[in-house]
Structures are given as structure tokens and as C-alpha cells.
Amino acid sequence: MRRLGLFGGTFDPVHLGHVVPAVRALETFRFERLVFVPAFNPPHKLGDPLTPFPHRFAMLALATQPYDRFLVSAAEAERAGPTYTFDTVRSFRERFAAEQLYFLMGSDSFSQIETWHRWEELVDLVHLVVLHRDTVWGEALEARVPRPLHGRMRRVEPFQAVPDPEPGSTWIYLLEHEAFPVSATQLRERLRLGRSIHELVPPEVHRYIVKHHLYDQVAGPGDGS
Ligand code: ATP
User: Fold this and answer.
1) What is the Å distance from ligand 1's center to 14 Cα?
2) CB neighbourhood size of 90 (10 A)
């Protein structure tokens, strides 16, 4: 059965902390396609001004361009109101009924799974691939995850072949890749302070940010722009 990966987030901006773990997941799970799904109007970030969707989408298109199996979807821009991961995953489930579906999320997101809209149904609908964020991992992560999910959690080493799950079961895979300690919040803050972020985003994304003056950035000397 073919495997389809989905990776949701605000991607404001996309950075190497998204790209490198996504490549590890691709190498490990051998996804036929890994689709990045930028959130249009995420409920947990209502109130925080997001960079307009077309810019976030364009940066993802640039970041994923070198990878044949990476795609970007505008699925969330096509729906009105707050966009919930559950609805997005359900619509992919319906459209790609013949594929095994995996949803990628960082361990910080997974540690808050109980706050997600219809989370109990979500974990029955899709396999989760939890990416290693240094802020919460190992015992600290387990302590925050609802008990009923513990029995579904499986640790996976990068590049290890992951067998097909038994039909009807959904798993939560904790991918033990190297942590890549960078967040979009940190990057936006650095740009606001006039510091460069060029080593932490793909070069094409950096050029785009400079060209469009995103994040009130002030290009510093020697930032490669
Ligand atoms: P922000 O700082 O604005 O909250 P972010 O860097 O966490 O942004 P998001 O777009 O919110 O990025 O993240 C999308 C998904 O990618 C989330 O599930 C998040 O946990 C995960 N993620 C983000 N950064 C990393 C990282 N460095 N390593 C692993 N996963 C990450």
C-alpha cells in the first residue's frame, strides 16, 4: 500500500527545522508523497497576525522545490472559518482512500494533542509521526500525552524500515532523528532585531523574505542577500 504523508503548520516562515525532519521522515517511511499543508486560519493562532497565506505558500513552494516527493497544498485556503487539522485530514482520507495516511507534527504539538479539535477521532483516522523537538521529548513528552495513547506509541530510528501497520490499527511513531532547535518565532524575532537568519532557512526562502520585506526585516551586512 502506498504511503502518503501530510505535514501541517503555519510555516511562518518555513525553516530548516521543518525541512530536515521532514526529509528524515520521508527517508524512514518512504512516503510516495509528502504534502505540506499550510494552515489558513488556525484556531490556536487566532489573534496573532499571520503573514498572508500567499507568502507562506510561496515560501513553502520554494523550500520544497528541490525534493521530488514534496508537494504543497492549498487545501486549507479553500475552506472558510477556522481550519482544523481533523477536517483537513478527513478530507485527504476521503480523497486518497487507497493510501496509508501519516500526519507529521513536532513533539511540542503532540504534547498538546488533548487541546486539538476532535483529537480522539484524529488519532483513529491517521498514523502520527512525531518529530523530535528538543523542548519536549522522552519522559517529559510521555508525561504530557494522554494515557490511552501510550500503548500506540512506537519509537523509530531514522532510516529503519517501518513495517506496514496491521489493517484497522493506527500508530503514533516517535521519530528519533537529531533535534534541529529552531522555531519560526525565534526567526521572526531575529529579523525584527535586524539579525540575519540565512543559515536557518533554505537560500531561496531567505531571498524571498528579503525581497518582500517580510517580518519587518532589516537586511544586515554579510547576510548573503
Ligand atoms: P512558531 O514558532 O511560529 O509557533 P514553528 O517553528 O513551531 O512556529 P509551525 O509552522 O508552527 O512552526 O510548525 C509546524 C509543525 O512543525 C508543528 O507540528 C511543529 O511542532 C513542527 N516543527 C516546527 N519546528 C520544528 C523543529 N525545529 N523540529 C521539529 N518539528 C518542528
Assistant:
1) 9
2) 16
